[in-house]
Design goal:
Strand order of the largest sheet: 1-3-2
Order of helices and strands: EHHEEHEEE
Number of domains: 2
CATH superfamily of the largest domain: K Homology domain, type 1
Largest sheet: 3 strands, antiparallel
CATH topology of the largest domain: Ribosomal Protein S8, Chain: A, domain 1
Shape: globular
CATH class of the largest domain: Alpha Beta
Strand content: 15-25%
Number of strands: 6
Number of helices: 3
């Protein structure tokens, strides 16, 4: 009896700055991920503005690869050092900062020494 595994494709979208962590040094992490999940994973080139990573393989392999890619991205989010810029000053010396994904943060008075 011959079993046929249906190949399919899926897309996972993560921030562009996380793509390099999916690749790893010299593509090592990507190769390991492809071997472990029996999939083919296509990451856009750095000069391509696409956020989409394409995964080809069986449904089970795609699900495992998608999960691992999301874990890699989530790890980077938890490690992120948020760069903020004072965009305006409110009354009473409060500052409004623009954060990641256009989120605004209101920080209480900054002490100056």
């Amino acid at each position: 009896m011959m079993m046929c595994r249906v190949q399919t494709q899926a897309v996972v979208r993560i921030p562009k700055e996380h793509h390099r962590f999916v690749l790893g040094p010299k593509g090592k992490r990507l190769n390991e991920l492809e071997l472990a999940t029996a999939t083919k994973i296509s990451v856009p080139r750095p000069n391509d503005s696409s956020l989409d990573i394409t995964i080809s393989g069986t449904r089970d392999g795609i699900d495992r690869a998608r999960h691992e890619i999301q874990l890699i991205s989530d790890e980077q989010v938890s490690r992120r050092i948020c760069r903020v810029f004072a965009s305006k000053t409110c009354e009473a010396g409060w500052f409004v900062f623009d954060g990641t994904f256009n989120a605004n943060y209101v920080i209480s008075r900054l002490k100056t020494y």
